[in-house]
Amino acid sequence: MERLEEYLRQAKRLPAGPRILPQLIELLKKEDANSGNVVHLITFDPALTARVLQVCNSATYAGSQPAADVHQAVARLGFGEVYKIVARVISEQALAPAQKGYGIGKGELWEHCGVTAVAAQAIAEDLGLDAQSAFTTGLLHDIGKLILSTVLESTYHQLIEETERKQCSLLEAERTVLGADHAQVGGRILAEWKFPAVLINAVTHHHDPAAAPAEDRKLAACVYMANMVAAITGHSYGYQALALQGRGEALDILGITRDRLPIYMIKTIDAARKASLIRAA
After folding, report:
1. Whole-angstrom distance, CA of residue 53 vs CA of residue 45
2. Among 138, 219, 243, 277, which is disulfide-ready with 202 (CB 3.0 to 4.6 Å)?
């Protein structure tokens, strides 16, 4: 526990961008939400505003006339789509740097999380779950790696020895060698940033959804499967911490069979290409 608290103290050095998301989520929940409140929150950060407009006016979203400001972007695309753009922009800023402790190159963690996000959204839409929550959780599910990567730069060999000695996953070795795994650290970071409990629990348990509180298991299982889809489609990088023994439990929680996986893979690749997260073959 002491080591986990030490890791959380290191979280203060993380980019501040993701902290805006809980406020946007809260605004979008309100029936009387108006564009003025949403726009004010976004335009408080000029750099964020510029990137949001850049994405809004890209080939993926562009209409006949480019959006000149965030008001026009909201009017054209709606709150929900602008939220996704904001979430994408600030997550990319946080996740794009290389994470040497995990052997992850520049841009690779962001690509993995972006693909996981669109996979989670596809699964959620198919099953009638909250697609926005699934998308956000997919984006941020590995944020704990930003903290543990620094520690791993000097202890990775211990981690590998642990996996070989105990024949366990890298995730389990994280707990033994580091005193916490990246999912636990990520969940605590989201709690510090005041994200909704369902997102906190889904990130914390995205490798073991059956251990999540009953009301949050479906979202955790959704992100578990999305993480797997990203890996199967070739969008996982560096030293992997996947604990695949929980796949059957995740399928049971969602009430689906593995026959759905190819469908989700196709939807994910298509959505990721449209969002310019991956290149067309």
Report:
1. 12
2. 219
What are the structural domains of the chain? 2-274 (1.10.3210.10)
Crossing angle (nearest 10°) for helices 20-29 and 131-140: 180
Instruction: Tell me if 237 sits within 8 A of 142, measured CB to CB.
Output: no
**Residue with structure tokens 């979430």?**
87
Contact (Cβ atoms closer than 8 angstroms) between residue 18 and residue 140: yes
Q: How high is the mean pLDDT of the chain?
A: 86
Q: How far apart are CA 57 and CA 195, in angstroms?
A: 29
* Between 20 and 260, the higher pLDDT residue: 260
CA distance 252 to 142: 23
Contact 114/92 with Cβ under 8 angstroms? yes
pTM for the whole thing? 0.87
What would the pLDDT profile of 140-186 be if each residue is shown by its tens digit? 999 999 988 888 888 777 777 777 788 777 788 888 888 899 999 99
Cα–Cα distance between 116 and 236 in angstroms, integer?
Answer: 9
Q: How far is CA 41 from CA 24, 72, 195, 229, in A?
A: 8, 15, 16, 33
Residues 185/144, Cβ–Cβ less than 8 Å: yes
Q: What are phi and psi of 28, to 5 degrees?
A: -70, -15
Q: For residues 111 and 103, what is the distance between their CA atoms, to the nearest angstrom?
A: 14
Query: Within a 10 A sphere around the Cβ of 267, how many other Cβ atoms?
Result: 18
Assigned token pair, 246: 């929980």
